[in-house]
Amino acid sequence: MNVNSALISVDVVLFRLNKGTLQILAQKQVFPDGITLLSLPAGRIDPQTDHCLDDTALRHINNIAPFNVSYYEQVITIGNARRDSRGWSLTVLYYALTQNNDAENTPDKAQWVNLVKGLPETSLAYDHNRLVQQALKRLCNKVQYSTLPAYLLQQEFTLSDIQKAIYAILGKRPPMRSIRNRFLRDDILTRTGHLRRGSNRPAALYYLNEKVQGKLFDRLYLSTQ
């Protein structure tokens, strides 16, 4: 790399829920010394194919596997001379959500990593642990006043599933009455007409209306358990 130029990249933290645990997608990267470490989906901007930074972020996810990205947004831009051994570097950080929880769709070159107390269970290369913290902080803030928890769920879900998704992210469980008051208004959800039956009372199944993507509410949850 030219000493008078900077390495510019886009890094993506892709979140999913798997059996109640929040996970991130990491790719296996072999370094010149032969050591294999995990890192976030990332890479340079391709002026020939990328019309905007969103295109770059989605392309680097799809380079690993064609995951169904249900939501994404830009988080922060970070740049300095210390984060990459090759020299001055700058990254535009995104986070994205997927409803995918099928292990068979994950290629050998990647793996899903559990988040434990806000950090990857397996440490990542470069400054990617810090990037995960930045993305998780944004997600934790936004799930408290938006429909984002539903974007981690399968196409059909219950109100209890929304509550469990919020708990997986925040470690706190909002009252069910708050979830009902928010999600069962303004045509945010549509009932499928089906029920999920189990050991408890049958629960109505819903799906999220596309027209309310990323809808924001006017306040945070007042209390959590």
TrEMBL record:
Give the source species.
invertebrate metagenome
From which lineage does this chain's organism come?
A: unclassified sequences, metagenomes, organismal metagenomes
| PANTHER family assigned | ADP-RIBOSE PYROPHOSPHATASE, SLR1690 PROTEIN
Start and end of every NrtR DNA-binding winged helix domain?
A: 150-207
Q: Which Pfam families match?
A: WHD_NrtR
What InterPro entries would the database entry show?
NUDIX_hydrolase-like_dom_sf, WH-like_DNA-bd_sf, WH_DNA-bd_sf, WHD_NrtR
State what protein this is by name.
NrtR DNA-binding winged helix domain-containing protein
